[in-house]
Write a structure and sequence with these properties.
The protein is α+β, with helices and mostly antiparallel strands. The protein contains twelve helices and nine strands.
């Protein structure tokens, strides 16, 4: 075996370490010297087996010192490359705190949701409880219990989405009005009570600027002793003053017909733009039709097993989209349901 020049070998190691620029090169360097199969140090240790005891001690000592030196240098080099990498990242990802920030678009609630929430808040401030019910309804709750039997002509006014009887059973439909919620509530609760019922309804009718196949309603119901249209009007005037944010709002009733109330009335509010003087919004009439109302029909109370000799009730309902169109000056109800952010961002 030839003599090993450890000083020369150490200088070669130092030169190699200086040329290393990446972690991958460090790993290749480590394998070159420490690999069990072909590592330089392992080859040295294998080659001294046939030497004398003195030579073995001498070469073993140098080989061990070189091993410790290389291990330490590898760790130092790793840490050096790591710090260099961090420094480069800091330079590349440096944040200029003087640069103007990027404007982040923040979302907001839909205008219809705003009207619903505000309406509910107003009714709750008057002591009303929020009630809800299923959108898939039965014929009984949607029609029969509201004094609208199968032969009643008013059913023709509510083109209905009937569901496949083979799939869900006979008599199921997408509710055409949230009045069904009132019936369900009256069955399970004893008067006196007052509730507000917001929700989505469905009608199979043509879609145009003022009609959609799905829309939102909000209804209120009060059942107690000695209720009258006077109480109904006072509640509605207070509600619309707060909803339209105008203390000069007035309400008027016009006779009308709804099968579930008797007497029934159409509810108009004085135009909040012109306060009755006449303008394009109210079509020069000074009034805006806003919904339907009336005293709950005795047959509806009887259906819910409420004693009509002791209790009376009034109910009111309106379409949320109609109120939003009037309040925000939107000319087409379909704009509320498309995805044109130019329209929705206005609110």
């Amino acid at each position: 075996m030839k003599d090993i020049d450890f000083d020369k070998l150490k200088k070669e190691v130092e030169a190699e370490l200086q040329s290393i620029k990446t972690q991958e090169e460090i790993e290749n360097f480590r394998l070159k010297y420490f690999s069990r199969k072909s590592g330089v140090l392992n080859d040295i240790l294998k080659s001294i087996k046939g030497l004398s005891i003195e030579k073995k001690k001498e070469y073993g000592k140098f080989a061990n010192q070189l091993k410790i030196y290389i291990e330490n240098e590898i760790e130092i080099k790793k840490e050096s490359l790591k710090m260099e990498h961090i420094k480069n990242l800091e330079e590349e990802e440096k944040i200029d705190i003087t640069a103007p920030g990027k404007k982040v678009f923040s979302g907001h609630i839909h205008p219809l949701t705003h009207i619903i929430r505000k309406s509910v808040d107003i009714f709750e401030s008057m002591g009303f409880e929020v009630a809800s019910g299923p959108e898939v309804e039965t014929e009984f709750y949607n029609f029969d219990a509201l004094n609208i039997p199968a032969s009643h002509p008013s059913r023709d006014m509510q083109d209905t989405f009937w569901l496949d009887p083979k799939t869900v059973g006979p008599g199921f439909l997408m509710r055409t009005q949230t009045s069904s919620v009132q019936v369900r509530y009256m069955e399970k609760n004893n008067p006196p009570f007052r509730i507000v019922c917001p929700g989505r309804v469905f009608r199979k009718e043509a879609t145009d600027a003022t009609h959609e196949m799905q829309f939102y309603q909000i209804e209120c119901l009060v059942v107690a002793k000695d209720m009258s249209l006077v109480h109904l009007k006072s509640v509605l005037e207070l509600f619309f003053k707060k909803l339209l944010e105008n203390e000069k709002i007035k309400v008027r009733f016009r006779p009308s017909y709804f099968p579930f109330v008797e007497p029934g009335v159409e509810v108009d509010v004085i135009c909040f733009k012109c306060l009755g003087k006449g303008c394009p919004l109210c079509k020069k009439t000074g009034w805006i039709e806003i919904g339907g109302a009336g005293m709950v029909h005795p047959k509806v109370l009887d259906s819910a097993k409420i004693d009509t000799s002791e209790f009376k009730g009034f109910a009111f309902g309106m379409g949320i989209e109609r109120v939003a169109m009037i309040k925000y000056g939107v000319g087409d109800v379909r704009l509320f349901y498309n995805t044109d952010m130019r329209m929705l961002k206005q609110f």
